[in-house]
Every structure is written in C-alpha cells, then in structure tokens.
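Weekly sync, protein design subgroup
Attendees: M.S., D.O., the rotation student, P.L. (late)

Item 1: inverse folding check
M.S. brought a backbone from last month's batch and wanted to see whether the design step gives back something sensible before we order anything. D.O. pointed out we never logged the input encoding, so this time it goes straight into the notes. Structure tokens as presented (163 positions):
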C-alpha cells in the first residue's frame, strides 16, 4: 500500500452519530505535509449519485474539503466536513473525527448547511465537549465566509491540482 511505502499514516474516519470508527483503507494518499493531506477515494459502498472523489484535509483549519464526482467524472458537489484530527505517532495513525455539521456547494455555488440538528443533539446528549461544539460552529462560520468572499476557490484549486 502506498501509505506504508511512504510512511503515511493509516487513516480513520470517526463519526459521533452514529458512533463508528472506520479505517479508510482504500483511500490513496496523494500528498501530505504539516499543513494538509490530499487523498483520492472511491465510495465505501456503491452509490448511484456519486462514485469517487478527492479530499483535502487542512490540519490547522479543522476542515476536510471533498470533491464528489459521478462515475463519468463530472462534479456532483463539494462537501465540507468540520473535523478534529488526532495523530498517534506510535501507531502511525491519523483519526479524523467528524464534528457533525457540514456544508455542500454545488456547481452553481449554491451553499447548503447540513446536520446542525445532529450537532445540537450531540451537544445536548454529552457526546461532544463544549470545545468541540464551539470549534464546529466557528469553523462553520469560517467555511461559509470563505465561500462568500471567494477564498473557497483556493481549496478547489488545491484538489484540482491532484485530480
């Protein structure tokens, strides 16, 4: 596997609702440094709406920007997860915890905010900390701002460079 040959970490996706942690064993790491990680992937389970894509993990910003593509390679949409990163150097793993609230951006630049209800539910049930709740809301604001001020195009350009 490519991540072992280059000493890339083993990637895990941790979800809070539902509670699960999945190794992203088929994701291919295209690039990694101290600031970001770029992967290409196919859906874990076959889907009719999209087939594969690319993801940009930005460690300092706590976001994952993904380009979802249909089987023919056309854009389905951009999907942005607000996340926390946990690195375990001893085990050479990187766990990406989904902090629930997401945004999508379609080809017409129509923005949708998703799963705010799950974020509130997780907070009310004590499934996330105060810090995680506040980071999630702050990062949501930053992401929406990046779309409105045109800076989101910088994320798109990074992914497009690896496509």
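Designed sequence read out in the meeting:
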């Amino acid at each position: 596997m490519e991540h072992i040959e280059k000493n890339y970490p083993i990637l895990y996706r941790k979800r809070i609702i539902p509670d699960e942690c999945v190794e992203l064993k088929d994701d291919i790491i295209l690039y990694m440094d101290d600031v970001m990680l770029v992967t290409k992937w196919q859906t874990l389970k076959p889907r009719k709406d999209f087939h594969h894509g690319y993801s940009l993990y930005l460690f300092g910003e706590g976001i994952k920007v993904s380009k979802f593509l249909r089987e023919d390679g056309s854009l389905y949409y951009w999907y942005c997860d607000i996340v926390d990163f946990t690195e375990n150097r001893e085990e050479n793993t990187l766990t990406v915890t989904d902090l629930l609230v997401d945004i999508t951006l379609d080809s017409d630049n129509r923005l949708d905010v998703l799963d705010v209800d799950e974020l509130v539910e997780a907070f009310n049930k004590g499934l996330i900390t105060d810090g995680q709740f506040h980071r999630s809301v702050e990062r949501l604001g930053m992401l929406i701002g990046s779309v409105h001020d045109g800076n989101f195009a910088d994320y798109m350009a990074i992914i497009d460079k690896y496509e």
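Discussion: Residues 13 and 96 are 5 Å apart (CA to CA). The mean pLDDT is 93.
Action: P.L. to compare against the previous round before Friday.
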